[in-house]
Request: fold
Amino acid sequence: MVDDMHPIEAKLIEILKDGRDWQLEDLGGIEQLAPAARSLGTTPIMPELFHPLVLGWGRAQASDRELHKGVLHDLLEVATTDFVLLEAVDILGQHRPLPDEGDECCFMLFLSKAATGDHSLSGLARSAALDGAFRWASDNRRWQLRLLDFFLGLAPNDDTEFLRRAAKIVGVAYSHWRDKELVEVLHKLAQLDAVRPEATFELGMAALSEAMDREDRNSATTAFRMARDWLDESNRASERSPETSLYLDGLDLLLSFHNGAASASIASASACVQRHAFELHAWSGGSGPPWLGSRQTEAACWSVLARAIAGLAVSLDEPSWWEPATVIEEGLLSVYNAGRSILRRDQHGGVESMVRPRIRTSVARQAGQVHQVRMWLQHNTTHEWATEAQDLIAQIDNFIEQSGSPNNPPEAASERTSLAAIIARSNIPEEKKKILSGVVENAMSLQLANLTGSEIEVIERCYQEARGHIDYNTNANGTCLFDTVLLWMVRFILIAWN
Reply:
């Protein structure tokens, strides 16, 4: 009821209805506002007071500045409604830095509200306050340490909604601050069923951050796989989200490229990443607190990376390139330096350690590609990637020296012996080899032509797992037996299923 409103609240509503610019003087000035602040702080319209309050604060005489700070304190201290606090954080954040240690006042009030355990504030209201405290602490190490202490004290019996939102903030905080204790907090939160989806996702992102910093290929591979495992657990703990799906498919693509997967398989994974990126953008609409902006940017960069790797995989299958400068600059060297060129990092790391071995080996096996990279470097000695191109050429020269000259035919990149060569080396009588060669070739052509995408994916996954086993790598008979059983078992299951 209007009769129950504070007179200043009623007057403010009328001013806002008129849609005109206004100042504190329109409400009677700071002297009239100060004694009413605690009453106005509990109203839905409270955040509307912050813009004129901060503007007036900056112009106020020295004798009135403390009064402005007191009004700010009183308005925030009594606020308890979630959407009011969210709006207050947004508006005050636009005016930072605040005068006269106003930021210290805001941070301490936000942190105090987030820590409230007497049920006077809902989980959403406390989450809004924690959002404010995290925003304010982004560039202040002293406040970060206060927040770190708060995170370490999170109790498993706290409000579920609050803990879920806290897990997200803890994960983002780790990506910026890299305090190892935050990972332990996430492990603790991951033990709670209701919080597990958020906590395991953030553990995956923490592992991803670690993987990106690794320069050793083996340790980077281990870290990327760990990140994928955490993300997969998050996916299984709740409905699959576009963000989780994007990183799962993105990591699968990166690991597949590293392990030598076919370009068609990589293209399929890239298409999935692009779809999830679109879904994520449509789902989030670019909204959310500022500290989520870095996550949205990172997801977009991974989408670009997936598309670039898929395009490069196709180019690497060719003996040479029609437009070599475009392929080398926008594909080859862009992926070769993916951390800096695509993912906006200031140094090389785990991604480069995953993609560079395949790039070096693949280019080294194609004489046409080697020549084009050399010619490009001769004409682009001042290019930003010239040093990396020199490194690539050096690695190629080393590979050629150890394994012999590169070949022109596309099939030279294959490590598999041709079907004709296998039959030629067999003990089959010479007069029957030609007939058998034609029959086997027709049979295999038919089988490969009818392979479905699902079958190819199953075969590829089984192969990737098996190639890490010592028997598969050291026992030729075991390798042949496994591959044979794998192919025909997958074919049999599909036929039986249909």
DSSP finds 26 helices and no strands in the chain. Residues 408-417 have pLDDT under 50 and may be disordered. Residues 360 and 391 are 10 Å apart (CA to CA). The radius of gyration is 31 Å.
